[in-house]
Amino acid sequence: MFLSKFIDELPIPPVLKPRRKDHLYTYYKVKMTQFKQSIHSELPDTTVWGYEGSYPGPTFEVESGERVYIKWSNNLPPTHLLPIDHTVHGAHTDVPDVRTVVHVHGASVESDSDGYPEAWFTKGFEQVGPYFRKKVYQYDNNMRACTLWYHDHTLGITRLNVYAGLAGFYLIRNHRERLLNLPNGKYEIPLIIQDKTFNKDGSLYYPTQPRKPVPELETSIVPTFIGDTILVNGKVWPYLNVEPRKYRFRLLNGSNSRFYNIKLDSGQLIYQIGTDGGLMEYPIGVREIMLSPAERADVIIDFTNLEGKNVIMINDAPTPFPSGVPVDENTSIVMQFKVTLPLSCIDTSAIPANLVSLPKINEQAASKKRYLYFNMNTDKFGRPLMLLENKHWDDPITENPKLGATEIWYLINASPDSHPMHLHLIHFQIIDRRDFDVEKFNKEGIIQYTGPSIPPEAQERGWKDTVRANPYQVTRIIMKFGPYIGLYVWHCHVLEHEDYEMMRPYIVIK
């Protein structure tokens, strides 16, 4: 299907107003509903799901340390928009098809408010999952200023709920960041990048079968979902009119499976100032930024002296990453910036030489090392099944860090694809990556390194909650567990993998 590029303006999600706010706490009420929205002006309106009648959902803006309560409520119809595979864990026929639970991705939050995959609820909380504990979630936001996002996390149907539209930004701000004089107000714009495929009638297309169909099943999960159309903030290939000045963009890869390697066709530098977990020590000028699903990058793009020019944001990451199919003339295009607006006032914003101090966690501080491997199996239908530690979701919990303990996790990827690994509750630092002898590991379970230690890329040197575990490498991350105890999860953020067993619970114990 041919759709013209750059004919629709980039929408900017509204900032959500709280129902109540005083010096003690802030209270929001957020409904999930089904509605129609224009995704591209050459397509009929698309039925989507969203928070507060908006896809993507409205943006939360909160302060570090602000106590926030959110009542998430499900007002969705009883029938799912998309095809459900009832052979997938958590999505069997004994649970309602339409159920939701919200996870604020990257938030340090008590376990009962984290959006545990089995804490789901239906319309009016009529039915709830076995781990459902409360209707109103509490977020203490005891974190540095950072770019988080919120999305659905329901066991067995996360990929469908997020693809239907259940995602939005959650920004934490603080005084220290304001003093840096970064571009702000209308010069600071969040960008959620996603890929989708549409039917001719404008409806969302999601496959009912993998490329090699499973004849026994009417609907089967697919190993990855790759859309043929790129959307930013819910619009296909939009444009944004900008002034010839600096802008701050919060980039988020909100796709199910697609990786993005973001560049500007002008060849100019992108100044990265932050990672998943907040500001970096100092800005870096880069020509490209790699984002795996769920990763964020906080960047400044300078349009000064580009009056009358158009700058296109492009992508060249193959799918699946890193050795899959190259992008085509459509999937290589993200959006366009048109430097057409007159300068409304002199640009006094800055790209400071230094941002924040970022003490490195000392490896010697780690009281435990965990060796965690991923491997590819097949299920009884011959479908690929990616497992962590060769264990299923329901197997007994094996990761039980102590509150306050520092650990190093060795993520051992013996598969040919890169997996974006996400841990709930904490932020970590990447230590290094290293090639290893996969054959020897598979046969004898021994890690024999075949190359030197590769430090994290410049764009990853900061606080992270999602890391690319590259194929045939051991990726080491270090983190301190806390400040809460209880049940959390770690998983691959390729949603098709996460939904089909590539997720494990872990528990922080006293």
Automatic annotation (TrEMBL):
Coiled coil: none annotated. Gene3D superfamilies: Cupredoxins - blue copper proteins. GO terms for molecular function: copper ion binding; oxidoreductase activity. It comes from the Bacteria. SUPFAM superfamilies: Cupredoxins. Residues 45-82, 99-175, 205-314, 375-508 form the Plastocyanin-like domain. Belongs to the multicopper oxidase family. This is Copper oxidase. It comes from Viridibacillus arvi. The lineage of its organism: Bacteria, Bacillati, Bacillota, Bacilli, Bacillales.
